[in-house]
Amino acid sequence: MLNLPIYLDNNATTPMDPRVLETMTPYFLNHFGNSASRNHPFGWAAEEAVDYAREQVAKLIGADPKEIIFTSGATEADNLGIKGIFEMYASKGNHIITATTEHKAVLDTCKHIEKLGGEVTYLEVKPDGLIDLAELEAAIKPTTILIAIMYANNEIGTIMPIKEISAIARKHGVLVFTDGTQAVGKIPVDVNKDGIDLMAFTAHKMYGPKGVGALYVRRKNPRVKVTAQIDGGGHERGMRSGTINVPGVVGFGKACELCMNEMESDTKRIIKLRDKLEASLLKIEESYVNGSVTHRLPHVANISFKHVEGEGLLMGFNKNIALSSGSACTSASLEPSYVLKALGLGDDLAHSSLRFGLSRFTTEEEIDYTIKSITDTVLKLREMSPLWEMYKEGIDLNSIEWAAH
Amino acid sequence: MAYSEKVIDHYQNPKNVGTLDKSSKNVGTGLVGAPECGDVMRLQIEVNGETGMITDAKFKTFGCGSAIASSSLATEWLKGKSVDEALKIDNMTIVEELNLPPVKIHCSVLAEDAIKAAINDYREKNGMEKIKFEESVVH
């Protein structure tokens, strides 16, 4: 039976897997101890649970448990990774290379670093959302200390060539930070094979709880250190103080273990559903996929429906289907998605986009319902759209002098 | 953001969607907004040249639910009004009728602008001088 509303906004957050919650519960009630309490069984139980979770998390990304620094989430890990390197390696240089399609947690952190006297290069992306490796290499200077490029994009799902990026970085003795928030748990990520020095990721995008994430910090070849951004009791090897969120960390560990064990079967199923959704929606005239279709996360599709506006489109079904739009009509700025604009999309197409994020729990019935619902709404709104009428009459919309307002 | 019931009703059952013959002397067309801003409104009026009454009004809108509702409501209000009365439609009355939140006020401004543009188009076609409107303050 189809249960409404349908959730297809899994890039924003995923539902928790009930098995994760089950693992967490005892750590709220019976084993509530502080993992830093070394002198009694409550502390020991908590510490043991955190150690085990740290192993589960490390295993998913091919890391050593000692290389995992627990944080409150990916945003904090992004901040710690980038600001921490900027401070720690100040004597080496002050230049960071990133890309315009990064998440705000990275971009705003870089803006902050510029205020502190750092220099940041923002690489443009190609129309498919990937950076140009030659451009990356050309941007490296003697003062470059860090390349911060995300593993996969949150809006379009484009997977960056991390291995190639890190090979270039190695050649020049530059560290690689990657925001792995959308990728970890969804596709195989291995910090050694991929040559990653630092990586931020979070539990709530992979069926774990909100409020817990991690920063991977390489310990060997090379040994990387970050300056703590939160000072206190010296937790997490001095890199992130603060009492550990034990139940959260336990849930994070379980979520990682489940992703590791079920990634292959989940991916097979999800890709089939995503491809069905995408192929069906592309049957609608003048609809386009945004971002690379070959280098892409299995659960993501970003599609523009020309001549209908995203928010108006969402309104046609958002009581029953949870999705997000690249149109920012709800915000006062009226600026559409900066990621889509960075791909070179006109504002009109950027305003007309929908982002689909599927999950482990998405069913075929839900996809079928979504296809029908969206198709109906697009067709209805086009009947109402003056742009569609002009397009159909063969009028070049660019030839019209629009009154900006 | 939750929409008001009236916005939802206009969105689901828009009134007067369509196209009037823009080459007709009796029809005034206003096309306002821009695709870049995420909303474009086209509002048309058909005027009885003898009585100065608006006999029909149609719209097509590319935009969010509030923009669609604002234009749908505007066409409802225009029908049966004289052109002079239509000039008095103020965007804030649309805001009040539809309970638009502050971020959506620009949708009502757009509707008011569309009405004025349609009237001016009609006036121009019929040898009357265009009315100069003050720039709307709220954008």
Can you characterise this structure?
The complex is a heterodimer of chains A (405) and B (139). Chain A has 405 residues and is an alpha/beta fold. Chain A has 2 domains: 6-11 and 263-399, Aspartate Aminotransferase, domain 1 (Alpha-Beta Complex); 18-259, Aspartate Aminotransferase, domain 2 (3-Layer(aba) Sandwich). In chain A, 38% of the residues lie in helices and 13% in strands. In chain A, helix 5 (104-115) links the parallel strand 3 (95-99) and strand 4. In chain A, helix 8 (246-281) crosses helix 12 (364-383). The longest helix of chain A has 36 residues, at 246-281. The relative contact order of chain A is 0.15. The mean pLDDT of chain A is 95. With 139 residues, chain B is an alpha+beta fold. Chain B has one domain (10-20, 28-125): Alpha-Beta Complex (Sufe protein. Chain: A), CATH 3.90.1010. Chain B is built from 5 helices and 3 strands, in the order H-E-E-E-H-H-H-H. Chain B has a 3-stranded antiparallel sheet with strand order 1-2-3. In chain B, helix 1 (5-12) packs across helix 2, helix 2 packs across helix 5 and helix 4 packs across helix 5. The mean pLDDT of chain B is 92. The interface between A and B is medium-sized, with 33 and 33 residues.
